């Protein structure tokens, strides 16, 4: 199983042996502006380290976001193309679920990642495996206004670290970035339980910025 | 000929998701998914909408092209992709998919230049490009005169627009006339019923002291808008067909005049015209007339190959394979402003198989160093 995620500033790739429940190799690079350049070399490094070929992979797992779009699409386009070229299965997993899973928390908590424009992508969880709200994108202050208890919940993810004044329960000792190894283990667990994973389609959560132009502007000087 | 390179090409620089497959100079498949209708109500291409549409269409379009060509992906000799110039987010979808396909199949990757691809596509229509070739590229995004002694390694910019692209001027005039987006085809249609000499619109940058090969369409666009407004303000009806014909005449007059002049000055006896505006019927007719008069052989691909498509990328990729050019690296970036002087993006650490000596004679052609 090959897992990859480009929905956060991290480019993260892991090769996971689901049967033996072990991670064979991982690669992790953080550079929010170079997802497109870093992903393939990371995949190549992971396969090289494990001494495996891409054709041996049966399942591709990809983080479907939410995340900044340009980077997010790199992972999805890559995963889909791998799967199409080699006839592999491709599964989508919500990026926030991967971060939640990696936290290992057993109590209710919140995951928040940086959505830029002073907003976060976020969701609430009952425990590391169980999301209880749909992923959403909001300014932290509005989340707090709508859910005043949010400041008391443990919080993980780079969005929580960034807006600590709202996410006061931030757990800095837990990984703030996505880990493809956690994403792979979560996907393997869900597949073993016979659960259906998501299609490899992006969770954008925002509409594209586009405005219908105002009426035609007159050019004749008055 | 089965030993000619079989290459798949991916193009996502603007609003068309294009995947083409060629064998040497032979077109096997040309699959296109367009998001143009989604952009129409915004009066222009919205980058984020285009990028989203590319991701949706990417893999299905690749599969459609492979099926259409009747070839197996494992038989490909290479995967080519537009590395730039174009919309950054849109390019990145194609580049990511191309890398993944090439890597998965164990095939060489060629990141190529969108403009050089527009020129090279003519090999699918009229066979090997003459060396050198003079190219006039006109579309909503570009208006350039390029001299290409070797389409895989040496493309020199002679001139380009200093403001609007030719296709943009068509879009803007169509908007003033309330004819919708895109403007090119609809203006062409109206112009057929109009008188091209009805209104004397200005020919930009054609004075004796103006840059010989540069274009300017912004002044023309404003002149057309003012003329229409004057009619409307006077309460008169706007003669749409005459405006369309006269505007189109002004654009095509300047384009063909400068292209023919460039051929003469550089001693080139072939002109190719590419890009979406090359589908314009008046441009084709006028170029034919003027080239014939000047003893220049005109090459214009069929309209579907002039607009953005994957076949043109595959055509240039096949030429890269045929000439043993260095492949691109797995960290190939999408470069929204890739210079036209770089027909492809070779691996910086790669070993060059470039046998440039065999093409030395054409590099000497104009005895000018156009890079400086
Ligand atoms: Zn183009």
UniProtKB/TrEMBL annotation, chain B:
<feature type="binding site">
    <location>
        <position position="188"/>
    </location>
    <ligand>
        <name>substrate</name>
    </ligand>
</feature>
<keyword id="KW-0479">Metal-binding</keyword>
<keyword id="KW-0012">Acyltransferase</keyword>
<feature type="binding site">
    <location>
        <position position="118"/>
    </location>
    <ligand>
        <name>Fe cation</name>
    </ligand>
</feature>
<feature type="compositionally biased region" description="Basic and acidic residues">
    <location>
        <begin position="350"/>
        <end position="372"/>
    </location>
</feature>
<feature type="binding site">
    <location>
        <position position="308"/>
    </location>
    <ligand>
        <name>Fe cation</name>
    </ligand>
</feature>
<feature type="binding site">
    <location>
        <position position="184"/>
    </location>
    <ligand>
        <name>substrate</name>
    </ligand>
</feature>
<comment type="function">
    <text>Required for the formation of a threonylcarbamoyl group on adenosine at position 37 (t(6)A37) in tRNAs that read codons beginning with adenine. Is involved in the transfer of the threonylcarbamoyl moiety of threonylcarbamoyl-AMP (TC-AMP) to the N6 group of A37, together with TsaE and TsaB. TsaD likely plays a direct catalytic role in this reaction.</text>
</comment>
<dbReference type="InterPro" id="IPR022450">
    <property type="entry name" value="TsaD"/>
</dbReference>
<dbReference type="InterPro" id="IPR017860">
    <property type="entry name" value="Peptidase_M22_CS"/>
</dbReference>
<dbReference type="InterPro" id="IPR043129">
    <property type="entry name" value="ATPase_NBD"/>
</dbReference>
<dbReference type="InterPro" id="IPR017861">
    <property type="entry name" value="KAE1/TsaD"/>
</dbReference>
<keyword id="KW-0808">Transferase</keyword>
<feature type="domain" description="Gcp-like">
    <location>
        <begin position="27"/>
        <end position="314"/>
    </location>
</feature>
<dbReference type="InterPro" id="IPR000905">
    <property type="entry name" value="Gcp-like_dom"/>
</dbReference>
<feature type="binding site">
    <location>
        <position position="171"/>
    </location>
    <ligand>
        <name>substrate</name>
    </ligand>
</feature>
<keyword id="KW-0819">tRNA processing</keyword>
<comment type="similarity">
    <text>Belongs to the KAE1 / TsaD family.</text>
</comment>
<feature type="binding site">
    <location>
        <position position="114"/>
    </location>
    <ligand>
        <name>Fe cation</name>
    </ligand>
</feature>
<dbReference type="GO" id="GO:0061711">
    <property type="term" value="F:tRNA N(6)-L-threonylcarbamoyladenine synthase activity"/>
</dbReference>
<keyword id="KW-0963">Cytoplasm</keyword>
<feature type="region of interest" description="Disordered">
    <location>
        <begin position="331"/>
        <end position="372"/>
    </location>
</feature>
<dbReference type="Pfam" id="PF00814">
    <property type="entry name" value="TsaD"/>
</dbReference>
<keyword id="KW-0408">Iron</keyword>
<protein>
    <recommendedName>
        <fullName>tRNA N6-adenosine threonylcarbamoyltransferase</fullName>
        <ecNumber>2.3.1.234</ecNumber>
    </recommendedName>
</protein>
<feature type="binding site">
    <location>
        <begin position="137"/>
        <end position="141"/>
    </location>
    <ligand>
        <name>substrate</name>
    </ligand>
</feature>
<feature type="binding site">
    <location>
        <position position="280"/>
    </location>
    <ligand>
        <name>substrate</name>
    </ligand>
</feature>
């Amino acid at each position: 199983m090959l897992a990859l995620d480009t929905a956060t500033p991290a480019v993260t790739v892991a090769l996971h042996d689901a049967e033996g429940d072990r991670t064979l190799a991982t690669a992790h690079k953080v550079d929010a502006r170079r997802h497109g350049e870093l992903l393939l070399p990371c995949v190549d490094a992971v396969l090289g380290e494990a001494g495996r070929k891409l054709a041996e992979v049966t399942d591709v797992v990809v983080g479907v976001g939410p995340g900044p779009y340009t980077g997010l699409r790199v992972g999805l386009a890559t995963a889909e193309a791998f799967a199409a070229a080699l006839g592999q299965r491709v599964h989508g997993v919500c990026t926030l679920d991967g971060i939640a899973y990696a936290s290992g928390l057993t109590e209710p908590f919140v995951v928040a990642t940086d959505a830029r424009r002073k907003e976060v992508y976020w969701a609430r969880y009952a425990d590391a495996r169980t999301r209880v709200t749909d992923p959403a994108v909001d300014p932290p202050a509005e989340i707090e206004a709508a859910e005043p208890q949010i400041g008391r919940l443990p919080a993980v993810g780079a969005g929580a670290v960034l807006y600590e004044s709202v996410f006061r329960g931030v757990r800095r000792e837990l990984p703030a970035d996505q880990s493809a190894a956690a994403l792979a283990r979560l996907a393997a667990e869900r597949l073993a339980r016979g659960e259906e994973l998501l299609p490899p389609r992006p969770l954008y959560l925002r509409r594209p910025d586009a405005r219908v132009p105002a009426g035609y502007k007159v050019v004749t000087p008055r | 000929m089965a030993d000619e390179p079989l290459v798949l090409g991916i193009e996502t620089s603007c609003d068309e998701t294009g995947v083409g497959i060629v064998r040497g100079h032979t077109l096997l498949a040309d699959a296109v998914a367009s998001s143009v209708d989604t952009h129409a109500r915004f009066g222009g291409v919205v980058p984020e909408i285009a990028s989203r549409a590319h991701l949706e269409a990417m893999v299905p379009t690749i599969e459609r092209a492979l099926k259409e060509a009747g070839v197996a992906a494992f038989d490909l000799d290479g995967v080519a992709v537009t590395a730039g110039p174009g919309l950054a987010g849109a390019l990145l979808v194609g580049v990511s998919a191309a890398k993944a396909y090439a890597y998965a199949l164990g095939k060489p990757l060629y990141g190529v230049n969108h403009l050089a691809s527009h020129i090279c596509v003519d090999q699918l229509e009229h066979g090997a490009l003459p060396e050198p070739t003079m190219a006039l590229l006109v579309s909503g995004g570009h208006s350039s005169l390029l001299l290409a002694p070797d389409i895989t390694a040496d493309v020199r910019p002679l001139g380009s627009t200093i403001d609007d692209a030719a296709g943009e001027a068509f879009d803007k005039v169509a908007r003033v006339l309330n004819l919708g987006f895109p403007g090119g085809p609809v203006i062409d249609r109206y112009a057929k019923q109009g008188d091209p000499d009805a209104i004397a619109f200005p020919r930009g940058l054609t004075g004796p002291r103006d840059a010989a090969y540069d274009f300017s369409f912004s002044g023309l666009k404003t002149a057309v808008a003012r003329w229409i407004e004057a009619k409307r303000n006077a309460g008169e009806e706007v003669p749409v067909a005459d405006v369309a014909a006269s505007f189109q005449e002004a654009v095509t007059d300047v384009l063909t005049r400068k292209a023919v002049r460039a051929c003469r000055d550089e001693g080139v006896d072939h002109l190719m015209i590419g890009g979406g505006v090359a589908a314009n019927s008046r441009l084709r007719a006028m170029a034919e007339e003027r080239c014939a008069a000047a003893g220049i052989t005109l090459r214009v691909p069929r309209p579907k190959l002039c607009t953005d498509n994957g076949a043109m990328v595959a055509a240039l990729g096949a030429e890269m394979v045929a000439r043993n050019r260095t492949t691109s690296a797995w960290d190939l970036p999408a470069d929204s402003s890739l210079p036209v002087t770089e027909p492809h993006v070779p691996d910086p650490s790669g070993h060059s198989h470039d046998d440039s000596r065999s093409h030395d004679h054409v590099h000497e052609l104009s005895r000018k160093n156009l890079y400086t």
